[in-house]
Amino acid sequence: MDKYIFKKDAVLFENESKHCIEYLESTKDSTEDNRRGYFYTSLSLGCDEFQFLKNILITNINEYVKQHSFLSILYAPWTLDERFHIQKYTPGNSYSDEHMEHGKDDHDSKRLLGWMIYLNDIKNNGGTCWPQQNFISTPRRGDLYIWPAGWTHSHYGIAAPEEIKYIITGWCEFI
């Protein structure tokens, strides 16, 4: 694994993961996306609705910064983006286009780091591939990944052929 892809095992308890999945499944506010040939359901939320998640993320982002101290002295302040997405991928579907988290639009041009937490275990495939790092994650409930948002850490999802995959994903961004 690349030294800039941070992994922390089991940052969420089983009941916290289940709570996130149940919240997504019970809400009427989720949206479905199949614009690019992949299909998933997504719910955009704020950290205020999931305070436990905010605390976990801040703790682990601080650990990431300790490993990469340059981030603590950047020319502009940055922070955890209070918005995040809970996503559900049905069997055979994934966000399969290679992409980066940093982009041209105002909201994603400020992104510094991306993060993702798997909400369930997947037995067959279902990971995330960072091709430039030659690394594929193994989806395990509660595992957190943090990585740079730029083109050097482009990535794509790998479909789980027989299982539903749930993740939470978000960003750190310049203020």
Protein model, in words:
The chain is an alpha+beta fold. Helix content is 19%, strand content 31%. It is built from 3 helices and 10 strands, in the order E-H-E-E-H-E-H-E-E-E-E-E-E. Strands 1-8-5-10-4-3-2 form a 7-stranded antiparallel sheet. It has a 3-stranded antiparallel sheet with strand order 7-6-9, with no helix packed on it. A hairpin with a 6-residue loop joins strand 2 and strand 3. The chain is globular and about 45 Å long.
List keywords for this structure.
175 residues; alpha+beta; 7-stranded antiparallel beta sheet; 3-stranded antiparallel beta sheet
Explain briefly what this protein structure is.
This protein is 19% helix and 31% strand. It has 175 residues and is of the alpha+beta class.
Write the layout of secondary structure elements.
Blueprint: E1 6-8, H1 14-26, E2 31-33, E3 40-46, H2 51-67, E4 78-89, H3 106-109, E5 111-118, E6 128-130, E7 135-136, E8 144-148, E9 156-157, E10 165-174
